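Replying to the earlier thread about multi-chain prediction with a worked example.

Input:
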Amino acid sequence: MNSSNPTVQRKESDRQGQKKWYSSFTSRPEIGPFGVMLLLFLLLGYFSIPEGEFSINPFAGEGFNALGIRNNFRVIAQLGIVALGAGMLIIAGEFDLSVGSMIGFAGGCMAMILKWGFAVVIPYISFDGGFHFEGLKLFEITDVSPLMALLITLCFTLSFGWFQGWLIVKSGIASFIVTLGGLFFLRGITEVSYRAFNRAPDQTAGSTTVTELPDIKNIIIVPGHGEMERDAAKLLPNDQLLEILSKVPANTVAKLTEQLTYINEKVANNKTALAAKKMIETLEKSLAGAKKSGNDSMVDILTKKIEAGVEVPPVAAKAVTDIDIAKAYIDTIFTARPVANFFGGDIMEPVFDWLYFSVDWNVNMYGNMFAKGMYSCLMIWLLLALVCYFVLSRTQAGNWIYSTGGNLSAAQANGVPTNKVKISLFMFTAFCATMFAACQVFEVNTADTAKGNLKELEAIAAAVIGGVVLTGGFGTILGIILGTIIFGIAKEAFFYIPGIDGSFYRVFLGAVLVTAALTNENIRKRIIGSL
Amino acid sequence: MSDSKKPLIEIKDLVKRFGNFTALNGVSLDVYPGEVHALLGDNGAGKSTLIKVLAGVHPATSGSIIIDGKEGKFSTPRQATDAGIGTVYQDLALNALTSVTRNFFLGREIKKGPGAFGLMQMKEMNRITIEEMAKIGINISNPEQPVGTMSGGQRQTLAIARAIYFGAKILILDEPTSALGQKQQMEVLKTIKDVQKLGHIAIILITHNEIHARLIADRYTFLSLGEVIGSGLAEELGGDDIKRLMAGGAEIGDLRDELGA
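Result:
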């Protein structure tokens, strides 16, 4: 016998390598996406710093000035809203290709209801004066509130989500096919509806857009004038503006005056600085010309002048008038349509005010405020993400979602209502698409049939980049969030890299997507088949 | 094992027909608490049908199942589970991607709050999982580890512990040692032994492996072509009897002779 006889009994656990202090970070599935996100942030930060300037602070560039942050996070948040729904559904083992069309459908539905109202009509065929359709109007609501429009739209989208889910679990047909059908069906029905409702009096087909909606989120109650749009209120005749101002409390007027004075001074200072900069530039140009022509005395004079610096007469700050104060006051009146503002308005205005007035950061080159806040969709995305995180990682429903995707028969054997789980998630993706649409419609006050195009695939890509496995059962909300940020920021980051075509961001995303899918599959296999 | 003990489950003249085909033709057997009752038989003998009838997957055509003196009629798996029959199938019904605790409580999570959106009480669930696994001899250090990182034997233990915790008085184990390595087979047999020691649980063990049966079974029932062709206490049966009955009662003689011929 030649077997070794160890004095200490070896255990199964001994075969697992010793854990390093950092392994709790590196073994998390989100570490990859987090790294890529960081890389993109740095690319965007450093490459967007204007040429000739140097900074080790990545926030010094255009990519991360107040307006950059505002716009980038709008792109990210909008995609994020649908990526959450898509990701949760993939974790449960199904996916939904109808999301993009659902966005178009929901947006159209909402905009049309807001514009023309809502009616329930029973169509019937009439032969009176030739074969044609007539409609029997059961009831009609005109002048629908934003909330009502949203709720009616949700009725449609959630029913459609339910129907797709029901069809998939009852028939066993792959969700790919059923929702691909949904993709065509919804886009088609949206287009048809636009044309039908936009039809001109002469019955020629109408356009596939809804425009000229009022700026609902900016409808305010102006004292003495009732409800009107903010911009219209600011264009009121001067005497009426002064009339409005006369009823504003004195301390509010004082505060507004102080702010306006600050702004005017800032604008004046920046104008002075800009003039000085321009003068230096002119001098430098002349210097270059003098050098070229070999005019040594001129070079000497110009060099000395540039070194000494230029003195420009300071631009005087504009005086603050009562009309300015009245307009500034109108800007501060809170919306009379909170639901529209919730979806399409801005958030964090006090923070951006503070950044402008106190931190001296949120300032554009002319001295005005750069961004007035973040888009509301950011808040909706983060709220949804928080809810999804709790549901997925802390609740019974979360455990059911993971098991439905991870091992369907095991879930069923343990009494998990897997069909209900799936149908609910199909409804949730429809809900997310509707939220996306609401943010868009109430923000820009228009809708058209192409809205949401390709969003279903982008949402799936974002989820996969964030560590979700397409076969189900694996993924986290944090990962989906990171994947969304990567997808949303890549375009912007590549735009600033000098000397390369901006479209390389697609090349990059394609490579990241496939790499992520390979990594995810590896991690999944390691968990399923280890030891 | 005195015969004065009352059986926990009595199966009497159980008949199950699928159309013209008679899968079970009057099967009777008693299982006692704290005993391992080995159910042996060749492929197609009716073992699977019997456990499916007991688990409520198929309703019986005739005959009765009496649990603790009460007649049981099962038309769904839920009814069987509620009556105290816990079935651990070969595939174990585990989700390898989630944690031990999440699997232990799958479908029966401890939660606070409204409906399916109630918050899971993870700490309590972790504690119970560790305790229940320890009761039948497996110490897991981290109940948050994915089931996929556990050995086959540990997974079997998890499924058994889960069935017991959720009220199984009669534990049906379907080929628990098949598809496992030597060491893990022993692990599972030890687990079964530990369940046996708990004393109040009746175990029905379906197996192909005569050696494993002999290591832990207290009582045997042999099935062939849907009928009981022999049964008895472990100490009454000799090795040759077991071999012969497992093969369906045919005198197959010594395998070595057969192959040599």
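Chain A has three domains: 28-96+376-529, 116-210, 221-373.

Feel free to reuse this layout for your own posts.
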